Structures are given as C-alpha cells and as structure tokens.
Amino acid sequence: MKKEDKVKKIAELGEIIKEYAHFYLVDVTAMDAAATSAMRAKCFKQEIKMVVVKNTLLERALKESGIDFEPLFPCLKGTTAMLLCNTANAPAKLIKDVAGKGEIPALKGAYAEESFYVGADQLETLIHIKSKNELIAEVVALLQSPIKNVVSALQSGGNTIHGVLKTLGERE
User: Fold this and answer.
1) Which label site among 86, 154, 155, 172 has the fewest CB atoms less than 10 Å from its CB?
2) In sequence order, which residues have a C-beta less than 8 Å from that of residue 113 and are 6 or more positions away?
3) Other C-beta atoms within 10 Å of 6: how many?
C-alpha cells in the first residue's frame, strides 16, 4: 500500500471513530467469508457499522484521534474488525447472539461509555451497560415513586377518615 493510500485510510478511520460514540474490536479470524457476510447483515439491521481494519492503520488513527486509546493497543493483533455504534451494549448483544449460533467472533476490547474493556471476559459486563436514555428513565421512575406513594396515601386517607366517621356515627 502506498504512503498516500495509508494516510487517506488513516484519515477515513479517524472520521469513522469520531462519528460513533462506541466501538468494539472483534477477532474474526475463525470466521469464513459466509459467516462474516452474515454478521455484516446482522450488524446492518441493528445500526452497527462493521469495518475490517489493518491493525497498524487503526493504531495510527486512534493515536491521531486526540483521545488516549492506549489500553486498546495490545488488542490490535490478528484479524480485527471494528463494530461501531451509538448504543453502547448493542454490539455486545450481537456478539453473544452470533457466538451462541456456533460462529466465533471473539471480543478483543471495547471503548464504551468513555471506558475501556479489554478481553473476552468483559462481554457480560458490556451487555449490561445501560444507555443514557435508560439511566434517565430509571432516575425519573425513582423520583416518581415517592410522589405516587404520597398521592396514593392522601387519596386512601379520605376513604379511611370517612369510614371512621361512619363507624363512630353508627355507635350509640
């Protein structure tokens, strides 16, 4: 590959990395062309971009990105594919789903929610990461719960007072 082509490819990778909030590095060495093609189709359906990259070019693009991606550099060995998306746990769920069907994409590392996850043992952790919208929904639900309890108590309190007054009125 000519130097101009390498510089162009590094710039393209840098733009792709900036476009997406999260990315996973996956080892696709054990996957044949048909399995890789099927995985690409699954990625497309879930709005995940899959790019097979040269490790040295990716390392240069990561270094030039302005973020310190050094914890992921040891993962750049063998055949590497990047799964890029804006939902942190979507690629992890896809990897688990594809691996469960006998195909073997192995997680090398990931950059999700501004944190680094290195190694295949981090897959379960990545699956359970919640998105920003999910966390906001949980906080709103937690904030609403006490208010609902107070309103419920006030509404049932009226019935309780009415019942007490009725019982007292029926007594002699």
Assistant:
1) 172
2) 22, 88, 129
3) 14
Same domain, 84 and 156: no
Would you state the pLDDT for residue 82?
92
Tell me phi and psi for residue 14, to 5 degrees. -60, -40
* CATH code, 43: 3.30.70.1730
**14-to-60, 63, 71, 144 alpha-carbon distances in Å:** 9, 9, 17, 43
Pairing of strands 80-85, 49-53: antiparallel
Cβ atoms of residues 60 and 7 within 8 Å: no
pLDDT per residue over 68-116, tens digit each? Answer: 889 989 989 888 889 999 888 888 888 888 876 655 678 889 998 888 9
Which of 147, 83, 148, 137 is CA-nearest to residue 110? 83
Give the pLDDT confidence of 35-78 residue by residue, as tens digits. Answer: 888 888 988 998 999 998 899 999 999 988 888 889 989 989 88
Cα(97)–Cα(79) distance, rounded to whole angstroms? 20
Instruction: Let me know whether 122 and 134 are in one domain.
Output: no
Q: Would you state the structure tokens that stand for residue 20, as one six-digit string?
A: 């997406």
